Automatic annotation (TrEMBL):
Domain of life: Eukaryota
Species of provenance: Juglans regia (English walnut)
Protein name stated in the entry: Uncharacterized protein
InterPro entries for the chain: Auxin_embryo_med
Amino acid sequence: MGFLINRMHHFLHQGNIFKDAATWNESTLLKRDHAWKKTWILDCVPSAFFNAFVSLVITSSVNGPVSSLVPMFRFIPVDHSSHQELNTVRQSLKAKLVEESIVPIETYSQQNVFYKPYEVGRLMPDFWRILDQAREQKVNLHNLQSLGKYILSSSFDNEEYDDILSFLGVEPVNNEWYAACIQSSNLVAGVLKDLYLEILLFFASNWSSKFECTNIKNVRLIKYVGVDRDESLCSIYECMNFSTVVSLSRDYLYVSWLSDSSREFRCAGNRFFMPTCTQEALFFSSKKVAIWNWLQVQVKVVFVNVYEYAIHIRNSLNNDRKLAVAFVRFLYHSLLKEHLSRGETDDLCDIMPLIDNYGDLTTKRQGVIVPANGSKWVELIVSNPWRGVDYIELGEENLRPGYFAGEFTSGEQLLEFLKTHVGASDIPDISPPDADIPAVAAPLTFQNVFLLLDWIRNLKYRGIRILNRFLKSIKEATISVIHAYLFTGNHFANGSVLVHIPLIDQKFYGDRINDYKDELKTIGVVFEYGEACEYIGNHLMFVVENSTLTRSQVLSVLNFIRFFKENVLPLDKFISRIKERRWLRTSCSDRSPVEFVLFDPEWRLASQISDIPFIDTDYFGEEILSLEEELKSLGVLIGFNGSFKLVGDNLKSPSRLTSLTAEAVLLILECMHHLGSPTKLVETLRGVKCFKTNIGYKSPGECFLFNSEWACMLQVFNGFPLIDHDFYGSIIFSYINQLRQIGVKVDFEEAVKVFAHSFRQQASSMTKENVLSFLSCYRQLKGTPHKFPPDLKKFLREEKWLRTRLGGV
């Protein structure tokens, strides 16, 4: 009680109420012989103390910081007295203080602001430490006082002042305040990684006791890296319901690799990772276990290793070929970095979808063969005879060289990886199918003869039985060598060759052929010369006029012509009789020589857009190309030589003209230029999405040709398909008339109609950027011949499309 009197004494003295107050103490005030003083003084003390205290607080707040003001609150008599009279005084004083704005709040400025005690709230010490560090990191905290409770000054919010603050009725803020603070500030996104972990630790440590049932679950507290590779935030509720799946690496070694891989996979399957720096900081945090357990158990953050992440990606590919290609590279580098074991890699490769040669993603397969390009099997067999037994041919897209997460992979590395872990095979290591192989009936090159023999040797060495249909195809095969043929099986009896005796050319093959006697016997080669003598040739003219010629017979006819030419014998009659007949096989059908073309590089581009009747070199083999002069003498077209009409007359169907290369489009335009009014070309192209634009491939009628005088008009809104002149080159502008013919909008008058229609549709939802872009374009067109149509001008004057503070006007 003496403490109360002494505190009163100080403020009475400060207030100059009683000049002799210094001589008073508790005992004298309470003596019975001073009853009149006792009553009078005790009635005056609350007001005197209150006035003096408030005066001192206000004066001190002007002259110094809150830290110098706070000690003055120790003068408040907070202790209970054994004398009821003084307790009454104490309660009277308290009643005055709690209704006065005397409690300083945190302003983060030099301005001191005071509120009534019941209007002010206290914060948990751990959260004060977070706020102090956040302020050091330049995070704006000025919104703390706008969340329902004014926050007590940090200088005052200390344990040593608990009794004073309790006396005044300053209570801790409720738990929802912390959720509101996080939600309304940049406290999460604006702090560095270590302080972010402190924030997570704060909520983790107090979860069950304070925050589990608060709105913090709906506050965006959890950091992750989004599809755009920027840091984003989601709520605990989103994590708990897996609407946003946030992941962490189980091991520090995988953190960077998994994060980089996630960006490459565009966060497939809605799976995101916390920022790399946050994950790394977590692994080195002394509170790792507490934060880790809270994230895993309460927030439902998913912890994964590389294998588990790979399983997730495999299940999220969704027929996306780009992701499938990336997945192969991911597995390759994960194995190389030893993030996956060989066994895990094999398991993943067993279920990994592969792109086949048709561009389809497939997992159902009995085996895999290497891509046709550069393979030995296509060199020998041409087509894929294994497809019927669920073998797939690897698409070249699987082997496209490129980068994944900063790591380069060559096509050769990917092929070796797929050979090892998927079992992609080629001749001579692959087992042959039980099927006919029509391609081996064509003349085999020197290399293919030995490739076939090596394949047979490899099969015999591995103890694999050569199936009947396959063996029969080989026995009936024809092997071409220079100007002679090597026949196997019963070709002699069939009499299918018109000119040459089928003797193995030992000089051509060299001594190496003698090493394959067992293999040659297997496929039916006859080693006795006498048996070859039974071969009888038929007269060429008789065959041409009386039957449909086989491939071998066609080649024999051409060789016959060559023989006549070399020996300067007359050919006119023979050629005139056969050049108009349909006996040559082309890529379209059997035709007469004057109706078809011999393919060469000059025709490669034209073949992309037109079904040119090329000689079927797949059917006739390479030998047909060596007979160019003979074909020319029969009327076959050799070389392009400005054959624009032929290209136009044989144009492919619209469904096959989509997504054309730049060169192909320019060739079509060049054809139109030479043909004048090509009705078929125009009608075919009108509805075909063949032009590459800034928003993908579009049909001519949807496209615009760039014009610098009014191109700004097409930049006001997204969605106007501008022909990609960088893709086609500046030459595209020289075909304005042809582009106009097929419907491309090359003139302002046509373009502005489309723009006006789009403007009316989007006027009510125009963004600031749209409006500014339109106004800039309007200024640019002003004073030029390009004028907006009257109906659009009327729309601009009368409709609401400009946003004001009161709404659209």
